[in-house]
Design a protein that fits this description.
single chain, alpha+beta, 16 helices, globular
Length: 539
């Protein structure tokens, strides 16, 4: 028996924690005296262990036993013991989020690794090793592109070429669940990453590269992909592996127990693949303007709350509609945000895609959406630009952008007993920044878009001046006039750059302390030490 991947510490509350593992054979997993049997997916074996009976505001070292044998911590680990830290009254008004997106794995190719630079999350884990537990972050948020299913390292490409028995599918992309399984192990298998994910509660959401670049950009894109003979296998494998590796741990034990769909995945009786295929098909399909599975989630963290939006799979695109989330799912988000909002110090929203882009780029996306709706030659050109330039963020779904803006404004204007800050954490765009939102009427709490991307990746050098130009106030004024002339409604919110843009591998920390909040962006220097690249008080 062997532990192949994990443990990964996922949802944690005042008295319980969920830990995820992958083993090489069926096994009984035990952590802190709590036991469960693995479940099977196509001869791969997983478990989600609920550790219950913990004390609030406690720190508990743990081991992972596989059929009675200690498999974690690793015998040669140079890291401190993994721990579970619960929430409670003493920590209710303090929380430290570490967040980022777009983490490409080590390529094990010298030239590629030099181009990628040092992994900011890897270096954060190394720094944690020498810090007291009290200085460790409380939550790690991975905001998309946990794996790159369509941009493989040379090592994975070579393995794929030697192992794939069918010629169906692109030679440089994963297609089936077996290939996704290898990709996750390759990406999450580094000792530093395994350790930090074993000891910091981790929330996750996907973005396009977890499935494929431009995933769900438009109805045209979906119809084009449906013509490819390998696509149905790919989307099933991508969504099924997302559920197994990422989504299950986003839910609390109570939510898992209440969901027949997700609770059935954890059953140890028989291969769970047929059930996962059904879930994946329902998640992918649009029926009467609704998706059959919701991947958004909520974490209550004392006096702070994290609400994660699914801004990738939750899209509605067919039948002339174009929405980032279905109306039913948006209703759910608004309910989670409004629930007892007066008791919150801070509201944190997560979306893999930024709500507030550099203003020039934001209006360019709105203009492209207007053009694509016109049909004919203009519509075809706009669609090609949309897919080629990745113009599919919130402003490219203008009705959804407006609804999100109004929801955020309402929370920020909750009065003296409402949150003292509202932040939107995002990634995707391969540069990092903080943008301050300004509404037509003053609101009580500051609102910020915080973007941290990439954790470990690179962009072509020509993109840096494009992103910088996106913040030009003069050009923004001209593009906004053009958008208005072409039929765009007035913006429900304006915004300005408060920090950045920053380029290069970055990890960010949002520190909440009582009614105060601060964000810090850090980047590794040539020696691997993290250096502050930007700091901004928020409230």
């Amino acid at each position: 028996m062997a532990l192949m991947l994990g443990p990964i510490l996922r949802h944690v509350d005042e008295t319980s924690a969920l830990l995820w593992v992958q083993t090489d054979t069926p096994a009984k997993i035990e952590i802190c005296g709590c036991r469960t049997q693995t479940f099977e997916v196509l001869d791969h074996h997983y478990a989600l262990v609920e550790v219950s009976g913990l004390a609030p505001d406690s720190t508990t070292e743990y081991q992972v036993l596989v059929d009675g044998v200690v498999e974690w911590p690793l015998a040669d680990s140079g890291f401190p013991p993994s721990v579970i830290r619960t929430r409670g009254p003493a920590s209710a008004h303090r929380h430290r989020f570490v967040f980022g997106s777009c983490r490409y794995p080590k390529a094990e190719d010298p030239q590629v690794d030099v181009e990628l630079g040092l992994d900011a999350l890897d270096r954060y884990a190394v720094r944690m090793r020498n810090l007291p537990v009290s200085d460790w972050p409380d939550t790690l948020i991975l905001l998309g592109d946990q794996v790159y299913a369509d941009e493989l390292t040379p090592q994975v490409k070579e393995k794929l070429a030697s192992s794939r028995s069918s010629a169906v599918g692109p030679s440089d992309e994963v297609v089936g669940f077996e290939e996704y399984e290898g990709l996750y192990r390759h990406t999450w298998g580094d000792p530093e990453i395994r350790w930090i994910m074993s000891t910091v509660p981790t929330a996750m959401i996907f973005d396009d590269h977890d499935i494929r670049d431009d995933w769900n950009t438009s109805d045209v894109w979906r119809r084009e992909m449906d013509t490819l003979p390998w696509w149905r296998q790919r989307i099933r494998a991508g969504l099924a592996s997302y559920i197994v590796y990422q989504h299950l741990g986003n839910l609390s034990p109570a939510e898992l127990a209440a969901s027949d769909d997700f609770h059935r995945v954890l059953e140890s009786d028989g291969d769970r693949w047929p059930h996962l295929v059904d879930l994946a098909d329902r998640a992918d399909a649009e029926t009467d303007g609704v998706k059959g599975v919701r991947f958004g989630f909520r974490w209550d963290l004392g006096a702070s709350r994290l609400v994660m939006l699914d801004s990738r799979n939750g899209r509605i695109l067919s039948g002339g509609a174009r929405k980032m989330l279905s109306d039913i799912e948006f209703d759910w988000v608004e309910q989670q945000v409004a629930d007892d909002v007066e008791s919150l110090d801070h509201l944190v929203l997560g979306s893999s895609l930024p709500w507030l882009l550099p203003p020039v780029l934001s209006d360019a996306e709105t203009l492209d959406e207007i053009g694509a709706r016109r049909g004919g030659r203009i519509g075809r050109v706009a669609e090609r630009i949309r897919q080629g330039a990745d113009l599919e963020h919130w402003p490219a779904f203008f009705a959804s952008f407006t609804r999100l803006s109004r929801m955020i404004r309402g929370v920020a204007d909750s009065g003296s007993h409402g949150p003292s800050s509202v932040t939107v954490l995002s990634g995707d765009v391969h540069h990092s920044y903080a943008a301050r939102a300004d509404f037509p009427e003053p609101v009580g709490a500051p609102v910020y878009q915080l973007v941290c991307s990439p954790v470990h990746n690179a962009i072509p050098s020509y993109m840096e001046p494009v992103f910088r130009l996106g913040w030009s106030s003069r050009l923004a004024t001209l593009v906004r006039r053009c958008a208005r002339w072409c039929g765009s409604p007035d913006l429900p919110v304006t915004w300005h750059n408060a920090l950045g843009p920053l380029f290069g591998n970055t990890i960010a920390t949002l520190a909440l302390d009582g009614r105060h909040a601060t964000v810090v962006f850090e980047q590794p220097d040539p020696d691997g030490a993290l250096q502050v690249a930007g700091r901004l008080p928020i409230s």
